[in-house]
Amino acid sequence: MLNIVLFGPPGAGKGTQSERLKARYGLVHISTGDVFRALDPESELGKLAKSYSDNGNLVPDEVTIQILESEVLKHPDAKGVIYDGFPRTSAQAEALDKFLAKKDTSVTLMLSLIVPEEELRTRLMGRAKVSGRADDADPQIIQNRIDNYNKSTAPVADFYDAQGKLVEVDGVGPIDDITQRLFAAIDEAIA
Ligand code: AMP
To answer: Which is catalytic among the residues 88, 102, 121, 151?
Structure first.
């Protein structure tokens, strides 16, 4: 089973690139952010997730790990999964390792999109016009998301680096060029 963690700060292009990886390698795409946004906003879980995500804070690990695991279990026949926006903390990374080990599989590689902060801010402000996402529209919330990434999420790359699974990919430039870089990294990992 091919298990690819697509990693990077908010606005790095994870969602866009996930769609392309999904099409080329026949993978299931799981975005925890998409799952949270699809929850009924009137449900307890929906209200809880929104109370964090609307402010650019991370949803607590216990909730997020459960959501991720139940999404994976919805696809028992998947030949592989792209994890987009998960894991975002060290606890989530450890939980994913344990969960996959129980399924006799493991993370194949982490692709980390590298994009400078100034470019992230510009992209997210631009995306707000089409995404309708409250967390894209406000510069303070954007900054909070970037700060949370730097503080809680960036160390997750070290976790996979220690396992020899981290590949950093330049996330700046034409979208097609970035896709080709990702394809090349995956092809090399599975060759
Ligand atoms: P995203 O669509 O990946 O930008 O995620 C949007 C929001 O959903 C984030 O700002 C968090 O509030 C929440 N979220 C998504 N994935 C996670 C995760 N793995 N851990 C905690 N919160 C998450």
So the answer is: 88
Helix, coil or strand: residue 126: helix
Q: What is the pLDDT of residues 129-151, one digit of tens each?
A: 999 998 999 999 999 999 999 99
Rounded to whole angstroms, how far apart are CA atoms 153 and 147?
9
- Considering only CA atoms, which residue is closest to atom 14 of ligand 1? 33
Q: What is the distance between the terminal CA atoms of the chain, rounded to a whole angstrom?
A: 14
Dump pLDDT digits (tens) for 156-168: 999 999 999 999 9
The two structure tokens encoding residue 64: 């997020």
Tokens representing 96 are 């994913």
CA of 56 to the centre of ligand 1 (A): 8
- Check: CB of residue 6 under 8 Å from CB of residue 18: yes
Highest CATH level, class, for 2-190:
alpha beta
Domains of the chain, by residue range, sit at: 2-190
Cα of 53 vs centre of ligand 1, distance in Å, is: 6
Compute the distance from residue 191 Cα to the ligand 1 centre, in Å. Answer: 32
Give the pair of three-digit tokens for residue 161: 């680096």
